[in-house]
Amino acid sequence: MSNPFTGSSRPAPGTPNLPTPPTGWPIGSYGTYEEAQRAVDHLADSDFPVQEVTIVGVDLMLVERVTGRLTWGRVLGGGAASGAWFGLFVGLIMGMFTPQGSWIAPVLAGLGAGIVFGLVFAAVGYASTRGRRDFSSASQLVAGRYDVLAQPKHAEQGRDLLAKLAMRPQNP
Predict the structure, then answer these.
(1) Residue whose C-alpha is closest to residue 32's, from 57, 3, 12
(2) Residue 45 and residue 89 in contact, taking contact as beta carbons nearer than 8 Å
(3) Cα atoms in the 13 Å half-sphere on the side-chain side of 19
(4) Could you tell me what percent of the chain has a pLDDT over 70?
(5) How far, in Å, CA of 101 to CA of 136, rounded?
(6) Which helix (H) or strand (E) holds 57?
């Protein structure tokens, strides 16, 4: 929310930062984010006021790529590994506050407890799915196209610069 008395587009302290639709006129449309980034980079290299440019992802999709099959071995191995790292961290913290020469016991205790808790939490989490999700995946938000918008007073100049970019041969 803008404060009309300050002339700033920053929200006043204590007000929520609510999502707002983008403003500006389209000056280019691209099939990938990389191409839109390249266009804005070209504008920046041409001394265009890029602070007035927005890249807008249109036709958003959530893409979930399956990365592998989950088995009890993978689940327990991952739980033990993550528990070990956390236990090692806690053990090292505890070891810093023990008398000199006896820091190894807290580190080993933290490591052991971390492994046990990591195994237990991983087993409980996996068992609760009852086989409904026996795969691991990574999710990504992507757009069908990426539009580059510029404020109206610079839109024509931006279109001209991007048209020149489109006429240049692509580097492999």
Answers:
(1) 57
(2) no
(3) 1
(4) 90
(5) 43
(6) strand 53-69
- Phi and psi at residue 53, to the nearest 5°: -110, 145
Token couple for 103: 């820091």
Sheet holding 135-150, edge to edge: 25-30, 135-150, 53-69
User: Taking the alpha carbons of 80, 84, 85, 89 in that order, is the dihedral positive or negative?
Assistant: positive
Give the whole-number percent of the chain exceeding pLDDT 90. Answer: 67
The first and second tokens of residue 45, run together, are: 């290299």
Helix (H) or strand (E) holding 141, with range, is: strand 135-150
Check whether 63 has a pLDDT greater than 60.
Answer: yes
Two tokens, residue 169: 């041969």
Mean pLDDT of 70-99: 91
Chain-centroid distance of CA 171 in Å reads 28
Contacts (Cβ under 8 Å, ≥6 apart) of 164: none
